[in-house]
Design goal:
mainly alpha; Serine Threonine Protein Phosphatase 5, Tetratricopeptide repeat; about 0% strand; 2 domains; identical protein binding; Tetratricopeptide repeat protein
Amino acid sequence: MSHSILFRNLAIVAARRDDHDAALELYRRAWETSGGDLYLFGELDLYLAERDRHAERLELYDQLDEQARTRSIVAMRRGKQLLDNSRYNEAVTEYTTRTFLRGEQEKGVHHCYVEAIIGAAWPHIDGGDCERARQILAKGLEYPRNINVGRDSTKPNEAPVRYLLGVVEEKAGRPDQAREHYLAAAIELHRDGSPAACYEMLAWMALGNRARGMAVAHTLEQLARGERRPHPYLEWLYGKAILKFGHGLAQLVKGRPDEARQMWREALAENPDARWVRLHLDMPDGLLEFIGRCPGWPEE
């Protein structure tokens, strides 16, 4: 184990010098001599995620024995591995069956669970299978006991799921039910710049209130440009790319879907393990077009 610590420390030094080839080799040597140390597993998995080497992360997990895989420290990384490889159905299974401990970023775990739910629902929403999409999205309003977190009564962060349930009901020809979900998404309390704020914007647009929707869009743009200061908790929970993600959605409601996707691609290139960004790049084109169907600032 002493050699493993040495290799790990040298890897950190190499990474700080931007010598990432050397850092990766040293991390691998540290892992090979660690005897399967789970703290090193988490550190190496995070490093691989930041270097956009997501397939290698799956191989790293495969090297763990069955007992190691039962640990919550592993489960926290495994869920993100699956999300970053766009394996949303497997991620849903992971987040609904594994036990996550209270005090280990359980709110962040639940946000990842919602991300997995939405990714699993994308193809069904786009394909018109409204019943299946409704069943999947309804789970996003649940709080599985294995995650050990309950509903926040003031900032539940349910707006993304509520909005998408509205889309499903609208596609199913049920306008009253759609309006109910859109309104729930629009009036939810949240922090500016969060995914819930982004979906508040979409909900106001779907309700036909372009003024309110565009007001949120302008706030998202100001946050991304540095003209307003975001809450520090926002970046801690969602990562550095969250403001650029919101900026992209703001372009979508202005009738600029290509610009939105380009912003998301840039955000993912800068932060390969960004939350919510890959999810929206995986959104089917037809659904993206549907969401941006009523731009608040249409291009001439």
